[in-house]
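help with this:

***
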Amino acid sequence: MDNVTHKGLKKSFGLRMAIVIVISSIIGSGVFKKVAPMSEALGSPLLVIGAFALSGLLTLFGMWSIAELGSMYPESGGPFAWLEKIYGKMVSFLYGWASFTVIQTAAIASIAYVFAGAVGSYIQLPHLPEEIASFSIFGIQPLDNIGAKLIACCLIVLLSLINIRGAKWGGNLSMVFAVIIIFCILFIASIAFGSRTGLMQNLSTHSSVISVEELSFWGLLGVIIIAMRHAFWAYEGWMALGFVGEELEKPEKDISKAVTIGLLTIVFLYVLVNAAYLYVMPIDDIIRETTADQNKIAAVLVIDKIFGTGGAHLISAMILIATFGCTNATILASARIYYAMAHKGFFFEKIKKSHSKYSTPHNSLILQCVWACILVFSGSFDLLTDLVVIVAFSFYGLIVFGVILLRKKEKNTIRPYKTLGYPVIPIIFSLFCIILLGVTFIESPEKSLTGLFLIFSGLPFYFYWKKRAITL
């Protein structure tokens, strides 16, 4: 068949679907939750909104950079293939391994867990008796909040099965939910700004309990970086289009267009809806309410203030839609990484097989499903999201800086798209990754070391598969 790649995958996605993959891979739980920790860090509505906008701009810089790599090498697994060409097999493998152990699978687990929490707004989720639920292994309580964890796993299994049936099945599902969530976000913003509950002065009133005015320049920079780390979780998933490059109909033309249109749409929506939250609720109210109960979501508090307690059901429905679509898009894209690794001989042999009927990486989807479900039982939402950002940005900087290295290494290779603002934009993004990781290591050394451990835990597997490949 002409539309089947040499690895057995179908070319299923045009420009419209590529834009959908960008949007649906990014918009998930962060748009509803992350304004609270950012408010607590910065204490200023304008700084919070600015941090969302700046994080979006830096993400766009990264996306413009990877668009050059994706148009040059439109291969399944995207960054895994690019890193091999830039830095060699070991770095490439460690990225793929980190994606499997934490970056992509923990993202799937985290988003699905938030979906389950939203389900809990409508039905009473079961809980085990306290003596059983409190069972702990190395500080982890796998049986705590068992109802939510089971629902999260059911969602992951369901969406994995849908994506096994075909990439277009998963893509069309993402399209439906992407359109719905865009309208939902616009609805929240219009209701908030049209409400008499909100005040313009709320947007310019600083917190009375948290002040950054007395901080030094470096202290202020530190809290801004920490706040942006939360914002970057809301933008996590921006690399997804690169994972399915081999399945794009016209990657040389569509990648740059899709990332620009998709990301600018998301930045607009994020700035608009977070401004709406802070317009309705003074920043001190958001900090106080969410600090008192970590399960409270800023978006729910805002709608509750406008509509009364019934607003929680409205927002919960929107969270269900956003997290369902984002979980699906992440499952669809991420499985291509391990599929590509297996084809290089650096992953489990069975993972390189594609489905004989549906031309999808079914074994990769199944393995990803199993590990993501295990992660659901292993940790909290905030722990998983912080680990995702820490580990992911360790590689994002390498990938984007690789654009500069490849310009020198492969001068004569055809580049259907060249990074806008080269070399300034790749340099700015790469430097920011270094700063983000440095600040994070100082602020959260234990999480940073855990992230490094997860990355380098792949080394024994790398040497095993390398030796096996030489032997064969």
User: Anything to note?
Assistant: The chain has a mean pLDDT of 85. The chain has 20 helices and no strands. The two ends are 31 Å apart (CA to CA).
